Amino acid sequence: MIPENIFWAALARSSTIHDLRSYDHGPGHWQRVAQNGIELANYTEGADVEVVTFFALFHDTMRQNEWSDPEHGKRGFELAQTLGVEALLTPAQRHKFGLAVVRHDFGEVESDPTIGCCWDADRLDLPRVGIVPDERLMSTEAGKSAARRLERELLGERR
Ligand SMILES: [Fe+2]
Ligand SMILES: [Fe+2]
Asked: 61 alpha carbon to ligand 1 midpoint, in Å?
């Protein structure tokens, strides 16, 4: 569970909200990533829901533009550190949280169930920008089956 003070501080400090005023990468997206991630974690053995929810809140807090911004994960992680998130996590959780946030838009897949749920949760929200999620870029079995379902829903009539 994310403490309320950290939640509000993340909103208050977010460049995505205050500088970019982003719809595509703003709080609505973060909330859908949290919902996706919690659902994926329910079906993924060993996935840590706490890390997934912190990922959802911080991964896109510090965007500076809507397109190519490869450092935004790193800045989001730095904001989380500034707000004291690390003190709330175990060393193993910290490691996974850092890696998941910093590398989330590098186009990788990951065998660790927690990091896999984070990245899949983010990519499953791609239909908001008109992109059909690619099953091959999903890390978890739950993510792959959700991507297949979405593909059928979105492209079904055209096939
Ligand atoms: Fe991102
Ligand atoms: Fe995202």
From this structure: 8
**CATH number assigned to the domain comprising residue 59:** 1.10.3210.10
In the chain, the largest separation of any two C-alpha atoms, in whole Å, equals 50
User: Number of folded domains in the chain?
Assistant: 1
Per-residue pLDDT, 159: 52
Residue-range definition of the domain harbouring residue 95: 4-158
Q: How far does the centroid of ligand 1 lie from the alpha carbon of residue 45, in Å? A: 25
Cα(159) to centroid(ligand 1), Å: 31
Q: What is the mean pLDDT of residues 34-54?
A: 98
The residues, ordered by sequence, that sit 6+ positions from 52 with a Cβ below 8 Å of its Cβ are 34, 37, 38, 40, 41, 114, 117, 118, 121
Cα(25) to centroid(ligand 2), Å: 6
Q: Starting from the CA of residue 69, give the closest ligand.
A: 1
The pTM of this model reads 0.96
